[in-house]
Amino acid sequence: xxxxxxxxxxxxxxxxxxxxxxxxxxxxxxxxxxxxxxxxxxxxxxxxxxxxxxxxxxxxxxxxxxxxxxxxxxxxxxxxxxxxxxxxxxxxxxxxxxxxxxxxxxxxxxxxxxxxxxxxxxxxxxxxxxxxxxxxxxxxxxxxxxxxxxxxxxxxxxxxxxxxxxxxxxxxxxxxxxxxxxxxxxxxxxxxxxxxxxxxxxxxxxxxxxxxxxxxxxxxxxxxxxxxxxxxxxxxxxxxxxxxxxxxxxxxxxxxxxxxxxxxxxxxxxxxxxxxxxxxxxxxxxxxxxxxxxxxxxxxxxxxxxxxxxxxxxxxxxxxxxxxxxx
Length: 327
Prior knowledge:
Layout (H helix, E strand, L loop, with lengths): L4 E3 L14 E3 L5 H8 L10 E3 L11 E4 L4 H4 L6 H17 L2 E4 L2 H11 L6 E3 L15 H5 L7 E5 L9 H7 L8 E5 L4 H4 L10 E5 L3 H10 L2 E4 L9 H7 L4 E4 L4 H5 L3 E4 L4 H13 L1 H15 L4 H15 L8
Parallel strand pairs: 1-2, 3-4, 4-5, 5-6, 7-8, 7-10, 8-9, 10-11, 11-12
């Protein structure tokens, strides 16, 4: 199989590949490039592989990866224009593409029901979390963030409302004097946390943006990691945490139990009191923490990007027996 990466003008690749050439083509940019110029670059004996939810509707010679149906199931997280575009584009891609890939059995069902894609046209290729181990942990970050004196619970925030990080602040109200701090890494938005006054939450550390090296250190030193999301097609952070030996507390929603298996403690994402109880259990039970860590290592080992790549190649082979492929 021969692969090539095709880019629009003005986009510089973040890295070069030893055996995969990179080619810039066309004059347009953005969606116009994707819809009008990209399909013209696919020869009759070629196959276009799109990993990021979208692709051109003017060619059947493609495999498209659709990660979830969040634009339908969680509309509050997206602009109206974005939702409308996806509600038109994704069903069309599901109809014309040779194959649709997705990341979980949960997403397969969601895509089939939301975008009317035949189930037998959708194949599950799972993601992984071991990429976090490529980065050397910045151990000095723990002290820089003021987290070296007390145990802390880690949460990695997103600007999307359906990530449900407001639940973490609500959980604090159910803990009168917790023996730990809560460290929230990432962006802070009123869409996520409402109009919370940071000064109200004395046990919450707002870390802001963190680098990959800092994130690995945060995972490795945390008492536990909390993942409160309402909707995920897969959900990488819990697996990242497991790779780093961090116990995971996760929302009992969407694909999350499918990904985490028996290696996490689960809570109702609408009930802050449940999360509060679990946090105190973890804080007071070292044997439970040790058990979660060992189960986490075992669960994370079931996923790898090597397996993902091999499965994608296998899916390409089931579509057609071609000599030239485009990535």
